[in-house]
Structure formats: structure tokens, C-alpha cells
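Hello,

Our lab assistant flagged a job as stuck in the queue for most of the afternoon. It eventually completed. Since we weren't sure the result was trustworthy after the delay, we are filing this so someone can double-check. Below is the sequence as submitted and the structure that was eventually returned. Let us know if re-running is recommended.
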Amino acid sequence: MLGHLRPVKDPFRTALAARLLPAESRLRVLQVGAALSDDMAEQARAEAADNSRYRWLGEIPRWKALRVLARCRLLVLTSRMEGGANVISEALAVEVPVLSSHIPGSIGLLGANYPGYFPYADTAALAELLTRCETDAAFYDALRMRCADLKGLIDPEHERQSWRNLLDEVHRG
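-- returned structure --
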């Protein structure tokens, strides 16, 4: 998980879901981001002390956060709302599959039929997806391939060409 700890991000949802995983699960949750309140920091420290699957790395430089992401097998976005999360684009760039709350910003980036959605704040549904990613190689590979297919959308040259096309259309319009 990459993002500052604040309520709109529902930052502890993945840690709570990890508590529901089977005992044999090897899944671990890494959370990168500054706590934007003392309460959030205390909650992160308490969760790390009580949940062996959860580790809060706190705020680290962006380049280090991207290195952490690149070494992960999944990115989980638990937000209540996003305009189109940069972290999804960053995950696509390093070919890390995404699980996301089913919100318009993520749907706009990943597509309506993306198989890695769960209802916002639904801990059990997220735990089910995490388990499926860990135990169902075909499902995990399908997520990985869908994200790899989307990587071209964040290519800088593709974006420049899309802007040129839009501006040409507006100019002709």
C-alpha cells in the first residue's frame, strides 16, 4: 500500500483483511506513507505491534517508495474515492497487479470489467481476493496480464500523442 495514512484512503483495510487470511498464508502487508495525524500514527504502530502480517514503513522518499512497489507482488488501493490514483499508474509502470476498491477513479484507469475490484470497506471481500491472488495462479496471472496490457496507457509518448490528437480535434472543431 502506498499513500499517506488518512481516512479517505481507508489505510488499515488491508491490514484488517490480512488478519482474516488462513494461517498458512505467507502474505505480508507493507504500508508506505506518512501518518497525517497523531491518531493515524498511533493506529499504525498498534496494528504493527498486534498484526504480524503488517509493517508500516512510514514516509520514505518517492524513489524508495517506487522501489518498494517494484518488489511487491500486489498493490492494494482501499480508498473511498480517487480522481485517478497516481499509485495505480505507478504500479502499471512497474508491472505490479492491482487490487482496488470499486470506485470511479479506479474504474476509469483499470476498466469496468477489471477482475481485481472489491466493494469499498469490505474487509472480507478484500481478504478473499488476497487469498485468491496467493492461491490461484491463473487468477493472479490474469490480473498481471491485464495490468501489463494497460501499461501502454501510461507511456509518456502515448500521452503526448493523445494530447496532440485532442488539440488537433479541438482546433479543427
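-- support follow-up --
The delay was a queue issue, not a problem with the job. The result is valid. The longest helix spans residues 156-172. The longest strand covers residues 54-58.
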